[in-house]
Every structure is written in C-alpha cells, then in structure tokens.
Please model this.
Amino acid sequence: MRSTRTQYILFICLPFFLLAACGLPGCNTAENCGGIAGLPCPDNMVCIDDPTDDCDPQQGDADCFGICVKGLTSDNQSLEKLYQSRDTWNAHNINAYSYTYRRSCECLPDSTRKVVITVSGNEISGITYADSGETVPESPQGFYQTVDDLFGMVEDAFYEKAHQISVTYDETYGYPTDIYIDYDSAVADEECIVATGDLTFL
Model:
C-alpha cells in the first residue's frame, strides 16, 4: 500500500441545483483544490471541477482549480474502498485459487474469450478457455492477471489520474469483479474492461 495519499479530481455529473456558485452542499470556499499543484481537500471531502468557472479540463485546460465537496463521490470509485477491499482479500490469506476472467478490448477475438486462471503462490500456474478447457496460448505479459495484479492495476489508475474509474468488489472476499478504467477521454479504444467471478479455492 502506498504511504502517501493524494486527492484526485473526480469528474462526476452534478445535479442542477449544485450549479449555483457556492450554493454547493458541503462546499469548501476557504481554499481552492486541484490545479497543476494538486492542492488537496480536507479529509472526507473530494475535489471536483468547479462548474461555475470557464476552465474546462475536458477541453484541454490544464490548470483548472476545483472545489471541495462531500457526499458526492461513489463509494465504488474511491481509493479508500480499494484499500478496504484489498485488506478483506488479504485477511482471507488466499494463495491458491482459480477464477474466471474476461477482458474486453479492441483485439483478436480469442483475446476476449472468458478464461479460467489458476493461481498458486500468487503466481499464474495455468490458463484455459472457459468454454472448451483448452490451454490458452502464450499471451503478452500482463494481459491475464492474478487478483493481486488487479488491485495493483486499479491503484495505479488512481495515481495516474485516469479519467474514469469504476470498480465493483466481491462483498465476501473483496476481490474486483468488474473493472472499467478510461485512462484518457481524448483517446479512443484504450479503456480497460475486466470481468471476473467464480472464485474457487484450491
């Protein structure tokens, strides 16, 4: 786990009534946040784009200050939720398991087929196609991942300030079951979409 926690600008859809200039519920007017300097918000608040100014990061403006608000971020999009879920996973001390994995991408059809990944000692020991049981041919490094790898990928996306991050975690074991990451809104077909399930202990 990284020891330094950084606040991130999460671009979310605001209800119409929040568009009044601080009129925003929970708005912190004492200081700006975000910008190139990455100014943080107080605890339990997040920095969002200020809808009342003319600076638009979606249009390429680089140094847009935000406003601090509370109660508007989805729990499944928070870095804290990631850490809580990883702690849940680690608490179960699961080192040998299999699970289904499917990645969506603009790539060859076989690359998007559902597979069963077998993990032993936190290393991938086998990958087979879920529909046929055939062994998956050698794939590029990192294309198929362990649960620990998935946690690392999501964490990196937060620290790289990906444009959009949406993750659903298994309620019992904490592992990510659905991941959507859009790293750059201006680039087409670079999204990372992963679905997992059917966790089995070995």
